[in-house]
Design goal:
The protein is of the alpha/beta class and about 325 residues long. It starts with a strand and ends with a strand. A nine-stranded mixed sheet has the order 1-2-4-3-5-6-7-8-9, sandwiched between helices. The chain has a single domain, classed as 3-Layer(aba) Sandwich (Rossmann fold), CATH 3.40.50.1820. It is about 40% helix and about 15% strand.
Length: about 325
């Protein structure tokens, strides 16, 4: 396991690698405001055991990567209202720039092609990467993400309020921790709750590593400013898998269904009881799905008109 930095796309990107560099590379792209350490270690270890070289990194503005302090903290309420009105958003950067960060990291590592696995905002970045850089993409996995198409259902009121609330006083560590626990409980998987001790420990570890509420706000504006990716999704030709929780309160399952419908040949796997997180209880299931997908062994799609939602949680 190696923690290092690379200079790419005009910024410094902190990254970590696990496994054998000669194995097929898997680039993991994390979601809004989350650092590379948010990826469950059991998922990393499982991918390495399956024979993959795993690369994870801090997106710009979070973790140990470059913070764009030259840009002020955006007004999220104003941005939300402008988005409702359909007005164009001015943003310091967009998800396209963040996809270029990922490309720059692969260039810095001398990696020609990689499997892309992204969660939430990371799924959006991975979608853009797969569309813009087809020759560099072995496969795409978009987890708990969205196409960004207008008209899709948004977060529940409680989830939206949690996202839009001003950050806790960064000087009051206990307040920050308690608020973070409340948010993760709100958006997490109702059928697979995280134990209090492990949730608190992961939040404390993230706070000890880096705190960047302004960076998270800028990332959120980047999402809003990037708009509808449907035209890009229709251009994707690599093997694509969409995974979504049926109980996601932040990015409703309709967004995952829409994403899969927009990508030619994409497979959709809906998991009952899963919210907007990667619970420990589902890691083995996710590893099995990823291994089948990355090796090109997903079961063939059934004929049309056999769409179903069985206990397996699989849609086509």
């Amino acid at each position: 396991m190696v923690l290092a930095t690379a200079h790419a796309n005009g910024i410094t990107i902190a990254y970590e690698t696990s496994g054998n560099p000669l194995d097929p590379p898997v680039l993991l792209v994390m979601g809004l405001g989350m650092q590379l350490i948010a990826w469950p270690q059991d998922l990393i270890d499982g991918l390495v055991e399956q024979g993959y070289y795993v690369i994870r990194f801090d997106n710009r503005d979070v973790g140990l990567s470059t913070k764009l302090h030259q840009h002020k903290r955006p007004n999220l309420l104003w941005a939300y209202l402008k988005n409702l009105a359909g007005w164009k958003q001015a943003a310091p950067y967009t998800l396209n720039d963040m996809a270029d960060d990922a490309l720059g990291l692969l260039d810095a590592l001398g990696i020609g092609k990689a499997h892309l696995v992204g969660v939430s905002m990371g799924g959006m970045i991975a979608q853009i990467f797969a569309s813009h850089y087809a020759a560099r993409t072995l496969s795409l996995t978009s987890i708990m993400s969205s196409s960004g198409r207008r008209g899709l259902p948004g977060p529940t009121p409680a989830a939206r309020n949690a996202l839009m609330r001003p950050p806790a006083d960064p000087g009051n560590r206990n307040e920050v921790i308690e608020r973070s626990i409340a948010v993760f409980r709100l958006i997490g998987s109702p059928a697979f709750p995280a134990p209090e001790r492990s949730l608190r420990a992961s939040i404390e570890r993230a706070l000890d590593r880096s705190v960047s509420p302004d960076g998270m706000a800028r990332q959120l504006i980047a999402i809003v400013a990037s708009g509808d990716r449907t035209p890009l999704l229709r251009k994707i030709r690599c093997p694509s898998l969409v995974i979504h929780g049926a109980a996601d309160p932040l990015v409703p399952v309709a967004c995952g269904i829409d994403t899969a419908q927009a990508i030619p040949g994409a497979r959709l796997h809906v998991i009952e009881g899963m919210g907007h997180d990667l619970p420990a209880q589902l890691i083995e299931r996710l590893l099995a799905l990823l291994d089948q997908h990355l090796r090109g062994n997903m079961t063939p799609e059934p004929p049309p008109l056999t769409q179903h939602r069985a206990g397996s949680g699989t849609h086509h």
